């Protein structure tokens, strides 16, 4: 009779047991229901038929809802102000282009996940492509960005509570109040528990956007005007460009979400729903808010509305900020948890060690986000740096590397599957060039975004606008 540890032992490629060439799909390229042959034998959670804690429970509609709840919240609120810098035509074109670009890169990420079922996060993908060093870099980037994103949502909660109460309390206290439910909601071990909360979360941000547009139309700025296009320095233009770039920055979570799907091969449906909804909603919201509020529109956009409407929109959007923060902190904790307990019974059973470790990781992730948000005066700028260093790659650039790697190893999803090396690249010249440019685009966004973020910090210190740590 098998012991419990043998019963749940992970039998696929382990954390450091990748095949010599980093391939997890068979070279024959045989598929079963759209997934590589042997997919369930090699995926992150193995066979969960008799497991007490089951992770692979998500349907593709729930994954789409999770993606929308994660990405759309803060993303849309910065776009009208960004459009005011460059003009309405360049702004809308940029949002649409980046939405299409983000859809393309998300489909590439999903193909890579289907080819390599053992991949749970960006670090696992780094192990396949570049070994232990790249694994640690991409894992660290995922955790850092997730913690910083949690802190960003805590600041959104701080702003919301401040607006609702007319700033009657210390801002740090508002952040602490908001951090408590964020921690509680991030606690479930599996994403299916969070996914159902994401449904009202998505409804809230959609309704908040509609109410915000209605309020802007009913109370337009008296000095509003619309610029078709505006000239700006590279610095000012790229500062505005980073907002739509990072409005789509959710790809770093996609591997984790797909790993908990019942049918990972349905993930592309979720990606299509996410990007079509996000891009359409972003464009409509941006155009309406900019047209009625003009160049003076603030970021977040709701802060430009009359007080009673600002309270209404922030209040409606509050659950979305809360759930998005919970998702981010859950992601940071989940990466460590899977790293520690993959192939052990603690992953699938209710053990003291498993739950104690999970509790500590959740507290650490949320605690770090809170300390950074209230204790670092330049935290908002550090979020921009983290986004430039990591989200630029996770959302855009690294997808090009994924395709080039899989194509080289005969795993391209197209007609050249089973063709290897330079022959595969030459056989798909358009894809080869497109994905090479995708990689270079990620590098450009990373370098330019980091430059403007650092310059923003320098300018803030020069102007004396940087406050003190833990200040109200």
Automatic annotation (TrEMBL):
Record InterPro entries: AA_transpt_TM (IPR013057)
Main location: membrane
Localization per Swiss-Prot or TrEMBL: Membrane
Molecular function GO terms recorded: L-amino acid transmembrane transporter activity
Keywords per UniProt: Membrane, Transmembrane, Transmembrane helix
Region annotation (Disordered) ranges: 1-25
UniProt keyword annotation of Transmembrane present: yes
Keyword Glycoprotein: no
GO-annotated cellular components: membrane
Record field: transmembrane: 62-82, 88-112, 133-151, 171-187, 194-217, 237-258, 270-292, 312-331, 352-372, 378-405, 433-454
Membrane topology recorded in Swiss-Prot or TrEMBL: Multi-pass membrane protein
Amino acid transporter transmembrane domain mapped to chain residues: 57-454
Family stated for the protein in its record: Belongs to the amino acid/polyamine transporter 2 family.
Name assigned to this protein: Amino acid transporter transmembrane domain-containing protein
UniProt organism field: Exophiala oligosperma
């Amino acid at each position: 009779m098998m012991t419990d540890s043998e019963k749940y032992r992970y039998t696929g490629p382990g954390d450091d047991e990748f095949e010599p060439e980093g391939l997890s799909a068979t070279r024959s390229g045989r598929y079963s229901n759209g997934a590589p042959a042997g997919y369930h034998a090699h995926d992150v959670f193995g066979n969960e038929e008799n497991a007490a804690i089951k992770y692979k429970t998500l349907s593709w509609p729930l994954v789409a809802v999770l993606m929308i709840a994660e990405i759309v919240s803060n993303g849309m609120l910065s776009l009208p102000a960004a459009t005011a810098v460059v003009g309405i035509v360049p702004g809308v074109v940029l949002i649409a282009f980046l939405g299409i670009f983000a859809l393309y890169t998300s489909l590439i990420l999903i193909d890579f996940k289907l080819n390599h079922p053992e991949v749970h996060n960006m670090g696992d993908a780094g192990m396949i492509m570049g070994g232990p060093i790249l694994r640690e870099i991409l894992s660290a980037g995922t955790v850092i960005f997730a913690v910083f994103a949690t802190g960003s949502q805590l600041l959104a909660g701080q702003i919301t509570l401040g607006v609702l109460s007319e700033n009657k309390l210390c801002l740090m206290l508002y952040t602490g109040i908001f951090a408590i439910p964020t921690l509680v909601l991030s606690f479930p071990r599996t994403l299916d528990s969070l996914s159902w909360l994401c449904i009202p979360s998505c409804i809230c941000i959609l309704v908040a956007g509609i109410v915000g547009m209605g309020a802007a139309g009913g109370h337009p700025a008296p000095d509003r005007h619309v610029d078709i296009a505006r000239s700006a320095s590279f610095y000012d233009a790229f500062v505005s460009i980073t907002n739509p770039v990072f409005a789509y920055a959710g790809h770093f979570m996609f591997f984790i979400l797909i790993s908990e799907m019942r049918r990972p091969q349905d993930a592309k449906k979720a990606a299509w729903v996410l990007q079509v909804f996000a891009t359409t909603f972003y464009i409509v919201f941006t155009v309406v808010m900019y047209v009625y509020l003009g160049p003076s529109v603030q970021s977040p956009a709701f802060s430009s509305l009359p007080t009673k409407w600002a309270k209404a929109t922030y209040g409606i959007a509050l659950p979305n900020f809360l759930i998005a923060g919970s998702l981010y902190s859950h992601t940071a904790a989940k990466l460590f948890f899977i790293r520690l307990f993959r192939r052990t019974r603690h992953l699938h059973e209710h053990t003291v060690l498993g739950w104690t470790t999970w509790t500590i990781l959740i507290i650490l992730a949320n605690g770090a986000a809170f300390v950074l948000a209230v204790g670092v005066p330049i935290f908002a700028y550090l979020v921009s740096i983290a986004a430039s260093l990591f989200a630029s790659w996770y959302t855009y650039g690294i997808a090009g590397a994924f395709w080039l790697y899989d194509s080289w190893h005969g795993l391209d999803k197209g007609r050249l599957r089973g063709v290897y090396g330079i022959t595969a690249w030459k056989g798909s010249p358009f894809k080869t060039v497109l994905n090479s440019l995708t990689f270079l685009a990620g590098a450009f966004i990373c370098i330019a975004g980091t430059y403007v973020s650092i310059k923003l910090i320098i300018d803030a210190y020069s102007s004396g606008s940087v406050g003190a740590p833990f200040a109200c």
